[in-house]
Every structure is written in structure tokens, then in C-alpha cells.
Amino acid sequence: MSIGTNIKSLREARKLTQEQVAEALGVSFQAVSSWERDEYRPDTDKLVRLAELLDVSVSAIVEERANTFKLKDAIYNWEHMKTYVKTVARTLKLKNTLKAVDYAVEAHKGQTRKRSKIPYIYHPLNLACHALSMGIVEDEIIAACMLHDVVEDCGKKPEELPVNEETKELVRLLTHEQTTSANRDRMMTAYYDAIAENPKAALIKCIDRCNNLTTMSWGLSHDRIYRMIKETEEYFPRLLKVVKAEADFNNAAWLLQYHMESMLDIYKRLL
Description:
By secondary structure, the chain is an all-alpha fold. Helices cover 66% and strands 0% of the residues. The two termini are 19 Å apart.
């Protein structure tokens, strides 16, 4: 695709009008229109600001792509995953999980995954199904997979969750506060240190990271992908070691490490 086609595609994906782009860059909407028709190219300074506005790398705008593939955000239907998790929970009498599924669906109602129209509940359901597929059937773990983002993203409090105290503690550990550039390193280190003290929390966090790595390509900028890679390499080897030390989680740890390191290698090569 041409530069103009790239600009138009990225603009429309962000649900921005030509007028909104023009206002943000301090140009006329006719200028934006001419870029998209490939009549003119943005100046270098405008190109950099355009990349920042669209939250992509400059190369994502200027590289011409001769071949494109049909993309899809979701592999499985989230309602089918919900039915599967609840069926397993009923069969194995996972009481906390049964409560957590319905609570999470309601809490995340109306939310979508970044850069997509996929309901946000797809993410926690993915974690729960991922854990079950690796033979992890502990009630508190599956329930915490479902609830791990409700405090951080839905304004809920750990003490009000409809689950037992162990599950509430797992959710509390997996929830981190908003950070700034000044306190990010300190707060993230404290966050991962606390998780590393609890093998179940470490397991859930590794599953969460695997799922998030697979969706980085949905629209994260070059800088944000780089930061995600660096964070994964800094903190997750320790968490994987904690998970591996638990006999019941050893097989899961092997699969998680393979998934994580494979995704990192792919992104590094593409970058």
C-alpha cells in the first residue's frame, strides 16, 4: 500500500476525521486529503507528529506494502469460551470460578480491547481457557484469571468481589496502580516483587503476559512495543522460575516460557 493509503487506513482505524488530524497537526484538512490521495507527502516534522497522533512508528506510515493479509482480532467466540469455562466449573465444582465468570462479564460490559471492537471480556476468558488447556484446574487460579483486571479497569474493590479470600488476594497482587515516568521503575519493581512471592499469582501473570504479547501488533507504537519487550525480559524470567519451582505447574511453565520467548523473538526480528 502507498503512504497515502497507509495514512487513511490508520486514521480510519483510530476513528479520526481528516479535520481532526488537520487540527492536531496545524494544517488544513485539504492537506490531509492530498496526503491520502498521494498527491503530496507530509514534511518530515509533520510525519513525526502524525506517527505520534496515530500511535504508530513512522515506518508504519512510509513503508509501502505490496502484499497484505486478511487480519482478525479474535480466534474464538467469547460467548463460547464463557460457556466452556462455566461448564468445566460446574463439572469440577469450582464455586469461585462460577461466580467470577458472571461477575467479570458484567464488570467489563461495554469495554473493548485496544484498537479493536472485540469485547474486553475476551481477554480474561482467554486466560481462563489458557490455564484450563494446560491442565490447571484450581478454582482460585481460574477465578482470578477471570477477575484479574476488574479492580484496575472497572473501579471494583478486592473486598467486594464474590469470591473467597485467596482469590481476592490473587486479584489484589495482580492489580497495579497508575505510574508516571518518575515512579514507574520503582512501582513496577515492587509490583513484580510481590507477585514473585506467590506462585499462583506468578502463573496468572505469565499467562496474562503471553496473551498481551500476542496482541501488541494491534496498533502499539514502535516505542511501546520496545518497552513491552524490555519489561518482559526484565521481570518475567524470575516469575517463570517461581512457576517452574511448583511441581503442579512445571509443564505449564515450559509452555509459557516457549510461548513468551517465541513471541519476543518474532517481534525483535520484525522490529
